[in-house]
Amino acid sequence: MKKKSICIFVFTMMLIFCLIISGSAQTKKELKIGFGQNVASLDPHYNTSIQDILASTLIYESLATYDRDRNIVPVLATSWKQIDDLTWEIKLREGVTFHSGNPFNAEAVKFSIERCSKTGPGGGYVGMVDHVEIVDDYTVNLYLKYEFGPIISHLSSGVVGILDPAFVKEKGEDIGQYASGTGAYQLKEYVPGSKVVYVKNDNYWGEPAKIETVEYVIIPEASTRVMALKTGEIDLVENPPPHELPSIEKDENLYVYISPKSRTLFMGFNMNDPNVGGKENQPLREAINYAIDRDAIADYVLEGLGSAAHEGIMPTAVTGGLNDPTLVRKHDLEKAKQILKDAGVPPGKTIEFLVTRSRYLLDTEIGEVIQGQISKLGINVDLRPMEYASLAAILKEDKHQMYQVAWGCMTGEPTAPYFQLMSSTSMSNFSNWGDEETDKILDKALATVDWKERMIIYEQLYKKIFEDVAMIPIVLYQNIYAANKQLKNLYASPEELLDVKNFYFE
Question: Which of 176, 181, 354, 464 suits a disulfide with 43, CB 3.0-4.6 Å?
Fold first, then answer.
């Protein structure tokens, strides 16, 4: 009897021990994510970088989104239908409140879409909306300026977040530093240049978030981010350098996550600048195009964590596989030199080259390699690495010659990036490329509902910019993260959004 009691006691203690261990494994409720780029604003309508969009989409929701199977699904909308060529009816979700306690309704949708359509960045997503009519508290009609096939794709973008009208009025011009959305997380603290802290929204209308607190920590230096991950200070980091991946994969507490991403790193020329722009400098730009070895950059700089962008400004996964092999420019240094010789371009020319620092994976390093490749033509490249915000300011002021940025596709199809980069009315047309004919091609594409026909029109547009060599695609990026092995259900979409509310710790 005594022996049996001892066995029961031992079994009970073991069970209690296991429960304690199990419980302790579930106690981690704070997620810290290390990013390389500062969060400039939490106002989604004025987001100009993916870092801003990542930060705001934890708070703000759009009417629709892409699920993990790449289907567009309702979020704050419940359904939509096309009434006629220029009118869409959208039914809205009932029983949703903003973090401020104010109700979500048709008034908020009308305010947000019309506000977004009038901003610089937001205009690239919903600038086709003429006005929004409130039918009832949970129904709106969108009236378009012209027939626009991918309207629902555009409404799914994080840039078209639904804001709280009363809260925006209260905060005024400071709204970018505050936030009241409908999302699974609400803002706790925002320190520009340092961190953004979120807490779980206990009144969320949908499936509640599994992690209580999320903190975005700004760590510009990639190796420092990785060290913070290895020491346990950070749970998830973006863009670990390729040379760090072997040590991460060998660490029993860490793992690497890679997924497809619709972002292309490209070079652009200011077509208004007399040193590199205009028809007279087309041979110079064409020679540079041939001098760049994209395959070497993808294989040796990115170490295979990206691919050479031979297919165009947008990857074929976004454009439906349309690709013209005649537009491919394989590395050919001798041909590049001959082009310059035939055009009478003397050696010793100097070009200023602006590149980002720690905004994209090995962006500065890629810029340095391109500098070396172009120098083989006898051209001096004045490389100027800088923070993205500083670079963007120079580009908008039209004080640049040659630049390097990466552009993503936040709507699942290429209408938005093509419009942003090529329309004469776009604030993001940093190459100052295009003319009346270009805008007509864009207008024709925007009014084309059939997806395949629209892609054929865009191919025609890309041929035009290819001939002028206003932009040179370099590499196609991937989502690359390194994480604590306890962090589960990690997912980054091709639009680069993190599905944080469904992450959890084991």
Answer: 176
CA angle 490, 184, 170 (to 5 degrees): 135
| CB neighbourhood size of 225 (10 A) | 28
3-state helix, strand, coil in the chain (%, to 5): 40, 25, 40
- Which residues, other chains included, contact 480 with Cβ-Cβ below 8 Å and sequence gap of 6+? 238, 239, 240, 256, 257, 258, 305, 361
Q: At 443, list the tokens.
A: 């207008």
Beta strands 307-308 and 380-386, pairing class:
unpaired
CA dihedral 471, 476, 481, 482 (to 10 degrees): -120
Do residues 313 and 473 lie in contact, with contact meaning Cβ atoms separated by under 8 Å? Answer: yes
Cα–Cα distance for residue pair 475/412, rounded to 1 Å: 19
Answer whether 0.90 is exceeded by the pTM: no
Cα angle at 50 between 254 and 313, to 5 degrees?
Answer: 105
Q: For residue 423, which of 472, 476, 467, 465 has the smallest C-alpha distance?
A: 465
Q: What is the pLDDT of residue 413?
A: 81
Residue 12: per-residue pLDDT: 55
**Structural domains of the chain sorted by starting position, each given as residue range(s) with its CATH number in brackets:** 30-39+172-258+480-505 (3.40.190.10), 61-165 (3.90.76.10), 261-478 (3.10.105.10)
> Per residue in 425-460, is it b (16+ CB within 10 Å) or e — as a string?
ebebbbbbbbeeebeebbeebbbbeeeeebbebbbe
Report pLDDT digits (tens) over 221-232: 999 999 999 999
Contact 387, 355 (CB under 8 A): no
The region of weakest confidence among 100-109, 166-175, 320-329, 365-374 is 320-329
Q: What is the 3-state secondary structure (H, E, C) of 268-300?
A: EECCCCCCCCCHHHHHHHHHHHHHCCHHHHHHH
pLDDT band for position 1 (cuts 50, 70, 90)? very low
Buried/exposed code over 465-489 (b: 16+ C-beta within 10 A; e: otherwise):
bbebbbbbbbbbbbbbbbbbeebee
Residue at 67: amino acid letter: D
pLDDT at 268 over 60: yes
Q: Which residue has the tokens 């990690």?
A: 490
Q: Which residue has the higher pLDDT, 412 or 254?
A: 254
Q: pLDDT by residue (tens digit) across 472-499?
A: 999 999 999 999 999 999 999 988 999 9
User: Would you say residue 24 has pLDDT above 50?
Assistant: no
